[in-house]
Amino acid sequence: MLLFHREVQTTGDMEKIMPLLQDFASIAKNAGMTLHTWAGYNGCVAGTVQFNVNYENLAEGAEMNAKLQSQKAWWETLRKFREHVITTQEDTMYTYVRGGTANAEIPLGTLIQQNYFQFNGNDFLGALAWMNDLVELTKSITGVDANIGTSTYGTLGHMGYFAGYANAAQIDEARAKLMAHPDWFSKFLEGSKYATPGTVVQRHIIKIA
User: Fold this and answer.
1) pLDDT tens-digit readout, 11-32
2) CATH of the domain at 112
């Protein structure tokens, strides 16, 4: 299972941007694609907007994109949206090594906590094993599972885990449980031997379309 990820920084004028994002989702749905759109929240650059699509494989992605790009309304909406874009990051395709569901319906307002870093070249399989162990430990403490992904296209060596919450109160509750557990923080810190210094990020995004 693959995850396509696009991130842009916009002007943040959501009154003008939101209708365009809703149009993107509708046009994509008509082309057979489930497009998830997120606004940056805690830890993100102001005005951040992210777009995600799950694909079974590259062939499915190519087929969906061909249908999408045949829609005149897609290009018209894209031109309007670009008027509000300040910068665009490189597109990244991740491979799920844990989790991942095609065409999943995610409720508006869902918060995703993203934890990721740039791998430092020190034992890739060890890094994946550590991350899976951390996610398992976190799940046993909080009841919240997470997906794990590594970059396959774009900058290689990007890896992280992503957990969903219904609201901020659930995140607060989970954080309190983790901080109270005697083993969790030491397990979290074990990951430092796999991460390039200065690349460790923890942030939230919220589902808006």
Assistant:
1) 999 999 999 999 999 999 998 8
2) 3.30.70.100
